[in-house]
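Run RagB/SusD family nutrient uptake outer membrane protein through structure prediction, thanks.
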Amino acid sequence: MKNIKTYLLMAAMAFSTTACLDKYPDDMVPTDKAITTVDEVDQAVIGIYSSWLNGALYSGYLTLLPDIQVDLAYAVNGYSNQFGNTWRWNILSTEPEYESVYAGLYTVITRCNFMLDNVDRVRQNTTNDDDLDRLDQYCGEAYFARALAYSELIKLFCKAYDPATAANELGVVLKSHYDGDEPTLRSSLEASYQFVLDDLERAAGYLKLEDDFDGVLYSTPYFCEYTIYALRARVALYMQNWKDAEKYASKVIDSKYYKLSSVNDMITSSQNAYQYMWSNDESTEIIWKVGMTVSNYGGALGQVFFNYDFQSFKPDYVPATWVLNLYSEQDLRFAANFVTQPTGYPHGLQWPLVAKYFGNESFMAQNMLHVCMPKVFRLSEQYLIRAEARANQKNYSGAGKDLSDLRRARFQGGNGNISVSEQNWLEIIEEERVRELYMEGFRLQDLKRWHKGFERKPQEQSLANGSSLKIEADDVRFVWPIPKHELESPGSQIQPNESNK
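Sure, done. The structure for RagB/SusD family nutrient uptake outer membrane protein is below.
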């Protein structure tokens, strides 16, 4: 594993977001003039990590839009119209936010391909064993990053996976080389997920920890063996492969490298471990986060929930009433996730705001508001994945144990036990995923894969246009449209989604 300080010092390289499937990003050079040494491979991998700082990805649109689109938040009267089309379900192929997500993810993929296409030449000219080990590590990181980027593209721009039909459904454009003649065609959904699984298998061969490894893995900005397991569990859940979802989530949970942050453990005199995770981006349950420093950071996740100008709060979005009502009095996640504040609007709305994204305290000390490190993989999600996988295999007691273990870390006094049955398991898991993963980008995919719709009902000072919205299950707009410029670019053979029409 690299030294975290090295990453934080070196990640200051700037990388521009390029058009989605451009072969040559502006800051790259032809392959025959680049990457000839191990250190240059290292720089390429730093570029891959830095590309996740893009505000269109986890520190912005990729995380926020899927939850704002559905039923977790309401636009407030007087808001700035940020994400307005998404909230109103005007899901347009010309929407800059969708284009930016699509382009940002393909930028990650392009960088991975650039490194992977060059690394063999470097390996052939390398004899030092330590350097060869470094190259293996870098390859593993690139394969994992590519798998992660493709998994997010599939999640947003494709239908939910059904094993019976996936071979005939549209997937994504698969590019495995930086410099080649691969067709710009969408593969099947089945082939797209298989590509992700193949990359994860390759990554696993390079990133496996030594048997005697006794270091710390939590709160890292680096990929490792357990980030692979975490993504494999998530992908298996989305593919309805319940056995593998349980298997890989168990590898993470049972590893003992990670521990749920308990509301009953105080880190400071005023903050418990769960609160501290959101206010300082450090926790024993963080499997992978996007690393940031005050001089090198991404978007401001909390901006639309506060818009604080050092005088007042004017949030664009506030939590849905039904979400707030899900938390019981003993559930101390509520106090960490939400804080009630009067707003600076003329209507004077006073409402719980999304406290978990108010910002990292180190950044706030530099007057950088609402910036925090996205926690892309957390141990709690693995408990939720395993609970759902077990319930789908009719192991309701096992599902109940996983949910109870999670809730005991979140409830005052270690309470929170819950029973799961054949009749109630989906409702219980759905509610627990909302409580635990609120505004972390999972809700749109959850409703899509469960084939569920939703309905909004007006709440205090909610914007009229969008507050009385009813969306039926399997509405084509659950799948984001392929950006229009991709479909209309010269020579494009990319097939549109139904939401493009």
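Residues 325 and 334 are 10 Å apart (CA to CA).
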